[in-house]
Amino acid sequence: MPRSALTGTRIRERRxxxxxxxxxxxxLAGISPSYLNLxxxxxxxxxxxxxxxxxxxxxxxxxxxxxxAGAALIxxxxxxxAVQEGGSAEIDRIEELAGRFPGWAALLAARHRRxxxxxxxxxxxxxxxxxxxxLSASLHEVISAVTAIRSTAAILAETEDIDPDWxxxxxxxxxxxxxxxxxxxxALVAYLDEGAEDPxxxxxxxxxxxxxxxxxxxxxxxxxxxxxxxxxxxVAASQELTSAPARELALGFLVRYRRDAERMPLAExxxxxxxxxxxxxxxxxxxxxxxxxxxxxxxxLPAALAGxxxxxxxxxxxxxxxxxxxxxxxxxxxFGAACPLWPLYQALARPMAPLRAVVEPGGxxxxxxxxxALCQPALAAGFDGxxxxxxxxxxxxxxTVAIPESPAQPIGTSCRICPRRSCVARRExxxxxxxx
Length: 436
Fold this sequence. Notes:
Layout: H1 7-18, H2 22-29, H3 33-40, H4 48-58, H5 62-66, H6 71-83, H7 94-100, H8 102-131, H9 133-158, H10 164-197, H11 205-215, H12 231-237, H13 244-263, H14 266-275, H15 280-287, H16 291-300, H17 303-306, E1 311-316, E2 321-325, H18 343-348, E3 355-361, E4 369-377, E5 389-397, E6 409-411
Parallel strand pairs: 3-6
Antiparallel strand pairs: 1-2, 1-5, 3-4, 4-5
Organism: Rhodovulum strictum
GO molecular function, one term: DNA binding
Domain HTH cro/C1-type: 11-65
């Protein structure tokens, strides 16, 4: 139902709230009660002077009678209705619900957002339980210690005539295994508590680097100046980079960032990016760099200069994600493998062949993204060395660029939490109860 069609309903509700009779409002507005009755039942369009006059006598702005509930609330209610399979929600009357009962509508929208937030948390924790190597090793250590204690205790309990020397050995084993169990359990609880307080807790060098970049919104103004900071000094001063491997990875990233900034100065590149519609191929040709460098430079632009958020995912020849800069609606898994239908992985099969595709993640009301992907050989060891590949995928949401109307490629995050049950690339069943 269009917004304008509900103007009469809002007039009627506002009049009733004020305790005003229909005839009295019609007299004040200079129209007949029968005509006002038609307006209030949405059988006559209203606008111009009459709308302003009615709004004045009702004590509200004219826009309050025409615009109704906020667009964000309406969209959230629509999403909540779409998620419920087999439901009988009157979707065509959602705006009427939001207009007539704004408190209940806001409560329903808040509950739906909370449910979606908890679902994402469950997905993240399930993925973590499945793929986190530290968590797996810690659980194995706890189970091993419990098994050892149980075996030793069973021997002591079931054997009556144990040699005193052996009894002392068993007691010592019990003490050692109990201490090992306590230490392992404490370490596991501390790790889980840390992750619960911050889902983005770093447990690997790569994640430390990503936390370092995320804290700076992936933009490093210190390296943009004509006299840039020393990357080594930036690494040494960082609080996020706690391990030697993380500092080494970060130093390599900062050196490459500075090299990109020198070849594509910020102000000049930002202006060119707007002119070229954020097309990395055109930008690469314009600045004489390889497309992957243009990908990285676009991802490093502040959202205000890029016109909106820009995401980036990079992987090596094994498909392992080596860099993640997510955008809202396009999740990049922290642990485990991602969706094989991503253009990022399609590019791995066709080195040096650029790909441009519109993709649509799974969900009840999925957003669309414009992606660019390219795989290039690193040639770090020259032409005689092994072929080392690196692929990159630029992710542009609709709020950043205009998305073409071409059919979208359905994709997911990873098979374990993807709702597309009929996907031809599925590796394992989804843990989600509902699918499509």
